[in-house]
């Protein structure tokens, strides 16, 4: 009898309630029909606006321009350096410093790997290592915040160096102070302020990041990896962001948003147009635009722009990819990883502002 009642309860009722998405769907249908009747050209104008925003970036910059090729070449270069032991060498230099600060040395692994790799792989590889090394939750948060200080792809770093060369800016102090020094300073500052539950431990056996693959195999596989990075990650992400920019521009609210962001970025010594691209779309594209717009960009804003671009941006990485990745690979919940990433981003913006004001008078004539 109970089975019969349960079966009957599973039968859909004729008096089904409307869900919110059904109401929204009907409203969209009615709005679309009204637009087609009263303003038949509005939808086509919307698509034209979106296409005009997306096409120059996706096609002219990435597909037929030098930026796409530069991304693939930079990945090949990064994997070659990794194969030659660059990552392992840097880790073994920095590990004793972390022990001196009484911090689990594994916190610097995602940042160091991120310099030559990419931010998703850094989380997937470093998260389990931190857990295995018995890093506390605070130390894992330090690892996330410190990782934001490194470029989210080696392509960004290489294209940034090209941009600095165009402006005749010495890259050495910027690379040392803006990329390598934060890997040391940020864990120390956070361990004394926000994330204090740290402890000095000895890593019984440091992980090895130099692959065992043959050198030629590394070169060809890295070319494939660079192509996948371009077509499967960077181009889709950029297309989505500029799709929404096209929508906002059609509505008429993008210009005030852009001008407000530009004013804030200029105030903190960051070139506004490329800074917005770094924040919303792709730092790789931003540093490429720095070089292309050399004649129209104020060189005094280049230092801050380079530092900001060589970070864990864009915001889609901070708010989407990092929480999802670190939830699966570490002891952190999504919210903990997100807050740590935001802390790292705040530190990165402050670093860009400070170095922009302090170093620019010495590097830019």
Descriptive report:
The protein is mostly helical. The chain contains 17 helices and no strands. α4 runs antiparallel to α11, α7 packs antiparallel against α8 and α15 packs antiparallel against α17. It starts with a helix and ends with a helix. Keywords: Membrane, Transmembrane, Transmembrane helix. This is Nucleoside transporter/FeoB GTPase Gate domain-containing protein.
Q: Quick summary of this structure?
A:
The chain is an all-alpha fold and 365 residues long. The chain has helices at residues 2-9, 20-38, 42-63, 66-83, 86-100, 109-116, 119-132, 137-147, 154-166, 171-192, 215-251, 254-267, 272-280, 283-292, 302-309, 315-329, 334-363.
**Oligomer, anyone?**
single chain
Q: Outline the biggest β-sheet.
A: none
- What Rg, in angstroms, do the CA atoms define? 24 Å
Order of helices and strands: HHHHHHHHHHHHHHHHH
Protein name: Nucleoside transporter/FeoB GTPase Gate domain-containing protein
Transmembrane segments: 20-39, 59-77, 142-165, 171-190, 229-253, 273-294, 301-322, 337-359
Keywords: Membrane, Transmembrane, Transmembrane helix
Organism: Virgibacillus necropolis
Offer a few descriptive terms.
365 residues, transmembrane helix, mainly alpha, membrane, single chain
Which helices and strands occur, and which strands form pairs?
Layout: H1 2-9, H2 20-38, H3 42-63, H4 66-83, H5 86-100, H6 109-116, H7 119-132, H8 137-147, H9 154-166, H10 171-192, H11 215-251, H12 254-267, H13 272-280, H14 283-292, H15 302-309, H16 315-329, H17 334-363
Helix pairs in contact: 3-11, 4-9, 4-11, 6-7, 6-8, 7-8, 7-16, 8-10, 8-17, 9-14, 9-15, 10-17, 12-13, 13-14, 14-15, 15-17, 16-17
Transmembrane segments: 20-39, 59-77, 142-165, 171-190, 229-253, 273-294, 301-322, 337-359
Organism: Virgibacillus necropolis
Keywords: Membrane, Transmembrane, Transmembrane helix
